[in-house]
Every structure is written in structure tokens, then in C-alpha cells.
Description:
Family: Belongs to the carbohydrate kinase PfkB family.
Shape: elongated
Structural class: alpha/beta
Keywords: Kinase, Transferase
Domain Carbohydrate kinase PfkB: 173-471
Number of helices: 20
Number of domains: 2
Helix content: 40-55%
InterPro entries: Carboh/pur_kinase_PfkB_CS, PfkB_dom, Ribo/fructo_kinase, Ribokinase-like
Largest sheet: 10 strands, mixed
Organism: Lentzea cavernae
Strand content: 15-25%
Distance between the termini: 60 Å
CATH architecture of the largest domain: 3-Layer(aba) Sandwich
Amino acid sequence: xxxxxxxxxxxxxxxxxxxxxSGLSADRLRSTEVDVExxxxxxxxxxxxxxxxxxxxxxxxxxxxxMAGQLGTTDLVVVDVVLSLGIIEERFAGTPGLADLxxxxxxxxxxxxxxxxxxxxxxLGESRPPKPPTVRTLRLALEAESLNKLAELCVGSSVLDATxxxxxxxxxxxxxxxxxVMDFIFLVDHLPTASSAAPTDVFEESPGGKGLNHAIASxxxxxxxxxxxxxxxxxxxxxxxxxxxxxxxxxxxIKMTAGRNPVVAVFLLRxxxxxxxxxxxxxxxxxxxxxxxxxxxxxVLESTDAVVLTFEAQAEVVSSALDSIGNQARKxxxxxxxxxxxxxxxxxxxxxxxxxxxxxxxxELRDLLPSAKRDITVEELAQSLLTLGVHGVCITEExxxxxxxxxxxxxxAQFPAAMRDTPGAREAFxxxxxxxxxxxxxxxxxxxxxxxxxxxxxxxxxxGVADSMPAQEQVDRVVGIPGxxxx
Length: 487
């Protein structure tokens, strides 16, 4: 760390002053005469408030407990007992005498901490702890060092470090890393050219973004879904969180930042197809590589069954996520939606061997090969990407699919459809394919591919993309349409 971080002194001062008496608690933060604003205004605290609805004092205690849990053993022992956080008692419930550590008087807490120094370290897996301090050394030196480290963590960590991992492993679990935007949808007969107009009387504002759409598609198919994204702290950002909660998507890994939420103007053509004009406000609302390495995100990535990455995040974020997944003992299914195009996709080639499936249109996948000739065939395109190390390629066009992978090679014809293509079709396909891959231990057959392809036709809509994502019974109905076939 180079130089002091802004805000650490204020947070440390609050923690030092609140260690007296009964320690840190929501009631103490509400009633103390100490100026606690440096703690209540921490980004990690605001993150907990926004995503859980807790009051600022309750969120502050929760965030500080989570951050304290990431300290080294000795520092954790010191701050837990001195601030009376109750972390050790919670971790080792049923161990006799641990509740005594959190006495109402800080002097008594210090005495017990010194007396049980070796025992507490041993509980936490530290068999050779440092020499026990005296109460005086603890009060005058050790506490200050440990509280300073806690303050640095609270100020310098990703806001996602303050979130706890949670999942329902009775269902397939999926983690999506992408964006959550508000779509401004215009239904037009044609796209305007320079100095012309394309009037419309159909306009809709609806949740969107490839990450959000994929999360909704996965949740509607019955999977347990985390979305890792950034949203703005404005009315649209809060509407997106409410929408995701209503759809059953977990939002504890969504980063809320000061700034206006991204929006995308979506021009839908009546006969299918679309054109987008995105304003992503990346200067204020974005994921950073630090967010992907946050403890809550790491814990979810280590336990999830499948990970979906879109290129809406920075290349550095995608690279960091793939690198983290590649180092895990338990590797999830990894699916990449390579859209929007990256200016320099070659930076990700070293990670291609960690990708189980690339899913996109010919144009999206061709953008991954800047040196390839523009008239490359679909077979050449798929083979080129497989040669770079990916394990499977799905090319989806106009509700049909071509797949080339280690396990299966097939062409699935499109289902009867009123439109040529719609935004979100590939997210619907990808979510359906993931469900089948997880159900079949990755050994899918043409019937599974046909079902996933049917999800695209089931997603046809002139309205909000996320709202058009189908449930399983809707996909089943499309599969049962007369004339559906494979080729």
C-alpha cells in the first residue's frame, strides 16, 4: 500500500472510540455522541443498506463484521473481542465460555482475551500463535494496529467484499457477470438514415442488458441465480433491483455506485432485428477487477454450477474472472456471450481453454478473430475458435443453431417464428442450454439442443427483452409445435 488511504483515519477514530464500554452495536451507533458518519457513509455500508434494506447502523455492524472476518487470525481475535462483534462465538457455537468474551466492560474483555489467547488462536486454526500480550500492551499498541488494519479494509475493499455468499443448492446454480441497464425501446418500420426520421407511436422503458436478461432467463427456467453487475444509485438503478428481486434473482453481488444508471436505446424492427445505441456511463457505473476478486464473489464462483460472462464488463474484468475460475479446485461450466465486441479480443486468448461454450451470432464470434477473412464460413469460424482452445462453439442465427463441441456436433433448424430475430434470443438459448448441460452432466444430445433452440422462438416479443424470457412450459409448447424438426 502506497501512502495512507483517504478516510482511514476517520473510520479508525470511530472504531477506537466505540471499543469502550459495550463495544460496537447498532444501538451504540444510534445513541453515541461520537461522530459516526465516517463509518455510516462507507461505500460498503451503503451497499448493504441498498441491497438488504437494513438501517445504516445495522448495515454498518454487518459490514464491519464481514470485513473483520477477512483479517488475519491475531487481528481478527483482537477486533472481535475488543469491539464485541461476536464473530468467534458465531463460528464456534456451543463452545463453552465464548459468550463471556463479549462482556459489557472493555476492561473485562481485554483480561479474558489475554487469558484465552492461545485457546482462541487454536480454535481459528493457528496452532503456534504469537506470545500473549499483557493487557497494557494490548490496550496501548496491539488494538491500535488491528483496528487500523480493519479500517483500511473497510475503506479500500470492493463494496462487494461486504456481501455474504448464499445459494440454494437444491437447484442448479448459475452466476452471471454482465450489465443491468434500462432499455428505451422504440418499435419502428425501418431505421432512420442521416437527416431522416423513423416515427413511431410505440415506446417502452424496460429492464435489459445481456447480463440481466441472462439472469432472468435462467431464473425463469428454475435455476438459482446470482447477478454480478453494477447499477447506478438512482431511480432506474433501484427499479432494476426491485425487478430482479421480483424475478427471484439474487442481488447481493450487485454493486451500487453513485451515478446515473446506464441506458440503451433499442430500435426494434417490426419484421425482426434491432439496432442499439448504448450509453453505459462507464466512468461512474462499472465493475472493476477488484470486484471479481471480492470475497463474496469468490465464494459464489467456487460453489456455482455454471458461470456466464458477457463482454459488457471491461476486458480486465472478464480476464480476472476467467483467471479466478481457472484456479479453482471445483470448476464450473463456463459460458461466454462475446457481446458487445471488444477492441482487442486477443487479450483473452490465453483464457480460451477455460471456456466450455462460446455462444453468439456469426458476426459476434467473427469479431473474436480480427485477422480472419470477412467471408469465413461458419465451419471455418467454429473450427478456428476450437483451435484457440474453447471446448464448444454455438452459432445462433434467426432462431436456429449450429453447435460444434467435444461432445456433440449438430445443426438445429429454426422453429416456426413470426420474426427473423429478437434481442435476447441468445440469452434465452444460452440459459436453456446451460440447464440441459447441468441436468445431463454436460453430455447433451440433439433433443436437448432442440429444446434450447426452441427457447429462442419462445422469446419473441416486441416489448421488453427481459420480460420475454420464457419459462420451461413455454419452451415445451414450442417444441410441440407441428413442423418443428432437426436437420
